[in-house]
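Renewal narrative, Specific Aim 1. Our central claim is that a sequence can be written position by position from structural information alone. The example that follows is taken directly from our test logs and has not been curated for this report. It begins with the structure tokens describing the chain, in the order in which they were read.
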């Protein structure tokens, strides 16, 4: 029997309850059966049948983010995430989620959502115009980790250039992203 939380559907599944930026995951932008609908998105329970954080959110009035929960500072689940995150070298989303929850708590969900939706739009541009079929994971990491204004400026500059092929465009944009990341001391590869 599925838990009650499996019926919970978030309005914005692009941002996970636990602070993961689902919009920046390659599986969120995949077609077919391996596509993830994002946190508590449509049919999420079929892909991820048990998530203790979703069950907890269901019990706490279904907030869009754990960052909005009044019990976040004393939550044992979030404490465990903090402990695991500092030793987790995995995908960037796992590294940023506690910081994301802090931003949501301090500035509100709407401000964080606005930034994420703008970054997701940039990611869709990268995937639509500058993807040679091998850049999805790289673009997802770059969009998540690099500052929004810098990304917007970089894409604006590249939109003015004429490329001979998608491959040339992908190479130029990915090199520009790597240069930006190096300049800022951010590892995106």
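The sequence written for that structure reads:
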């Amino acid at each position: 029997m599925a838990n009650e939380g499996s019926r919970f559907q978030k309005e914005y599944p692009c941002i996970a309850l636990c602070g993961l930026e689902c919009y920046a995951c390659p599986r969120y932008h995949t077609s077919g059966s391996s596509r993830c609908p994002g946190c508590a998105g449509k049919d999420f329970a079929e892909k991820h049948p048990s998530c203790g954080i979703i069950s907890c959110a269901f019990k706490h009035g279904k907030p869009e983010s754990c960052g909005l929960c009044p019990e976040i500072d004393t939550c044992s689940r979030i404490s465990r995430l903090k402990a695991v995150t500092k030793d987790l070298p995995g995908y960037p989303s796992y590294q940023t989620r506690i910081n994301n929850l802090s931003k949501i708590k301090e500035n509100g969900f709407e401000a964080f959502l606005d930034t994420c939706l703008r970054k997701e739009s940039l990611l869709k541009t990268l995937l639509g115009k500058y993807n040679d079929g091998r850049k999805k994971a790289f673009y997802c990491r770059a969009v998540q980790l690099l500052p929004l204004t810098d990304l917007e400026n970089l894409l604006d500059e590249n939109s003015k250039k004429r490329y001979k092929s998608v491959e040339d465009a992908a190479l130029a944009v990915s090199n520009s992203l790597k240069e930006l990341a190096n300049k800022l001391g951010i590892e995106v590869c």
